[in-house]
Write a structure and sequence with these properties.
heterodimer; A: 382 residues; alpha/beta; Rossmann fold; 2 domains; seven-stranded mixed β-sheet; six-stranded mixed β-sheet; 12 helices; 15 strands; 19% strand; B: 297 residues; mainly alpha; two-stranded antiparallel ribbon
Chain lengths: 382, 297
């Protein structure tokens, strides 16, 4: 009997707590909610942190839309595909956001894809570059170019600038971003060399692996001219460090994920001379908005922003711009306005979305010299 | 595959294997004496790497001093975890202590995410370890010479303590029977604290060597090495210190060799380690060097 009454009390207390939580949510239509969906912990935490900086700057500069304050609701997708789906579900079901911005890491955006589509909430990708993020999904857009372009850019760099004819590949097999880039690179490089055997070896590793000596030893016997190894920055930095320790002294090529301070911290001297493609360089401002962004960023953080910070900033201001153009915070109206985006001035370049919802814009190639990122060149889409 | 390439793989395998062995020794020692699988071992190992990081970058300690501080603080942390999470459950069923160990592990991981942040940090590596030696066409980073030596030294010291000293005798007595040991005038709580302190200090040594080899520090750093060390300990016969070293070597070597000879299976590297664990549990549950001990009732 005592147990039963205890149970009853517990149920009562719980239901009180539930009603207390759910009551105010009903009447809270006086703000516009932007859901921010990023990896804040786990293997990709540095990427998420850099994007959050961009969103915070944008929020400080443009805190309102349609006369209503914008509230930023941040969720952590924990660098994990399963957690990413949970985080996206929380944003659409519990927080009832008007639009979603993110994520760093294509795999997480792809995990969120079906959820935003079913809930009919528009999502705007920041630095997720795998083509599958937006393909066949009318509710996912992005402010960046895609890997079919980035892979081609790096294949051309290897062939034309390095004069490479034999390339080995190391891919992060559990990462859709890395596997996608490798495919586009491979196709283009084979086309350029006219040689189906020009990719001499494809090695793989899992996200979170620490030891790559076995893969690198296998590659060393084949004497490639360069190694294309797109993947997460911390694994890539250790991969390159271990390559140098095995006397595998060939140029390493990668992509946008390498542009994090941690890549240089962890890789040390070994990552000097690596070359990668990315979105933006703070020394080459592209639009009037770039100047506004750069000034605000330097004032607040006293350093130069990374590309992905600019992209996250663009995600926020484009979402806000779409709400203004739609004249409504209704998710479907925002979606329609986003789809029509043409010639929008973002910090990381002019954004025009194509039929898939992908931005068509320039890529920047950078290298690392003496532990600093260095701008090499800009490549336009053809 | 040429002879020289095989030797390079062999050298890589020895380095990885002895690192697993080093972590597994501490794991298995605690089990051998307390019959407790200390799931927090991997996280204590992780804390050691962060103590190193902050010691060198924030308090500007010389590298050697930071190592000593890391070993001492990590040992103290091990004793603290034992006191808070395991001692209150001394007379509870073994499963409660194991669940408490899992809880301690999650607590340390999540506290670390809050305190250290999720962004990776670079482990400070002294110039000394940046040297790479060449024997024929084989390249061996200096750390790869040191890790096996440290593992063997740790093994010998530990065997000496457990088998030849008075404290070691008390440890063995406690592992047989708490109550009888207490009746013989052994301070059981003290002996258990010493065991945890030693196990955690060994974890710290493993953490320092791990950091030199894989300088990417994240709060979940200890998860995989902890599981691998557990597998290594089970392969060798959990509770058996020599077995842990053997298991570590076997596991590291087979991980390298599976990628060397069957590159298409690379993605299944971790899965392979767990398959090995299941196979050992099915066919030789006492491990390679374990003795078949009848449970006391």
């Amino acid at each position: 009997m005592k147990k039963l009454s205890l149970l009853l009390v517990a149920v009562l207390v719980l239901s009180l707590m539930l009603t207390a939580c759910s009551a105010p949510a009903e009447e809270e239509a006086k703000v516009i909610k932007f859901g921010v969906f990023e990896p804040l912990t786990g293997a990709n935490a540095a990427g998420g942190a850099m994007e959050i900086e961009g969103i915070e700057i944008a929020h400080e500069l443009y805190p309102e839309v349609l006369g209503l304050p914008i509230e930023v609701v941040t969720v952590d997708n924990k660098s994990d595909k399963v957690e990413a789906a949970n985080a996206a579900t929380k944003l659409v079901d519990k927080d009832k956001v008007n639009g979603i911005i993110g994520s760093w890491g294509s795999s997480f955006s792809m995990a969120a894809g079906p959820i935003v589509k079913d809930a009919e909430v528009p999502a705007l990708g920041t630095s997720c570059t795998n083509p599958l993020v937006t393909l066949g999904n009318d509710y996912y857009f992005r402010v960046t170019f895609i890997d079919s372009f980035q892979g081609v850019v790096m294949a051309n760099y290897a062939f034309n600038e390095l004069g490479a004819t034999k390339v080995a590949i190391v891919q992060e097999i559990s990462n859709d971003y890395s596997v996608g880039l490798v495919k586009f690179f491979t196709d283009e490089f084979k086309r350029l060399t006219g040689d189906d055997d020009s990719i001499v070896y494809v090695a793989s590793y899992n996200t979170g692996d620490q030891d790559f000596t076995a893969q690198l030893t296998n590659i060393k016997t084949l004497n490639p001219d360069a190694i294309f190894a797109p993947g997460n920055y911390s694994e890539s930095a250790m991969l390159i460090k271990q390559a140098k320790e095995l006397d595998l002294n060939v140029p390493f090529l990668g992509a946008d994920t390498w542009e994090t301070p941690e890549f240089i911290d962890i890789g040390g001297d070994a990552v000097n001379g690596t070359v990668f493609s990315t979105f933006f360089d703070s020394k080459v401002p592209l639009t009037p908005e770039s100047e506004i962004f750069l000034k605000a960023y330097r004032d607040k953080y006293g350093k130069e922003p990374a590309s992905v910070t600019a992209l996250a900033y663009d995600g926020y201001i484009l979402m806000r711009n779409a709400i203004e153009r739609a004249g409504s915070a209704d998710p479907n109206a925002i979606r329609d306005a986003l789809a029509e985006t043409q010639g929008f001035d973002g910090a990381a370049g002019v954004i025009s979305l194509d039929a898939n919802g992908d931005a068509v814009k320039n890529a920047v190639i950078k290298t690392i010299n003496n532990g600093e990122f260095e701008y090499l060149t800009t490549i336009a889409p053809n | 595959m040429s002879y020289e390439i095989f030797l390079q793989h062999l050298s890589n395998g020895i380095a990885l294997g002895s690192l697993y062995a080093l972590i597994a020794i501490g794991y298995t020692m605690v089990y051998g004496i307390l019959r407790l699988i200390n799931f927090a071992h991997g996280d204590i190992f992780m804390i050691a790497t962060y103590v190193m990081f902050y010691g060198v970058t924030m308090f500007f300690m010389p590298w050697g001093v930071a190592v000593v501080v890391a070993i001492l603080l990590t040992g103290a942390l091990g004793i603290l975890v034992e006191r808070l999470a395991y001692r209150p459950l001394r007379n509870s069923p073994r499963i409660s202590v194991m669940i408490s160990a899992i809880g301690a592990s999650y607590l340390i991981e999540n506290l670390s995410i809050v305190i250290f942040g999720g962004r990776p940090k670079a482990f400070p590596i002294p110039e000394f370890f940046n040297h790479v030696s060449h024997i024929g066409s084989i390249s061996i980073p200096r750390a790869n010479f040191f890790i096996p030596v440290i593992t063997v030294v740790a093994l010998i010291v530990l065997l000496y303590i457990v088998n030849k000293t008075k404290t070691g005798m008390a440890m063995r007595a406690v592992s047989k029977d708490y109550e009888a040991a207490r009746l013989m005038g052994i301070n059981v709580d003290n002996i258990i604290s010493i065991t945890f302190g030693m196990g955690s200090m060994l974890a710290a040594v493993g953490g320092v060597m791990w950091g030199i080899k894989y300088p990417n520090l994240i709060p979940l750093l200890g998860l995989m090495p902890g599981l691998k060390a557990f597998i290594a300990a089970v392969i060798g016969g959990i509770g058996n210190i020599k077995g842990a070293v053997l298991g570590g070597f076997l596991l590291g070597m087979s991980e390298i060799m599976i990628i060397a000879f069957l590159p298409s299976l690379t993605g299944y590297r971790d899965a392979f380690a767990f398959i090995l664990l299941i196979a050992i549990l099915l066919f030789k549950p006492d491990g390679l060097l374990g003795k078949n001990v009848t449970e006391k009732v």
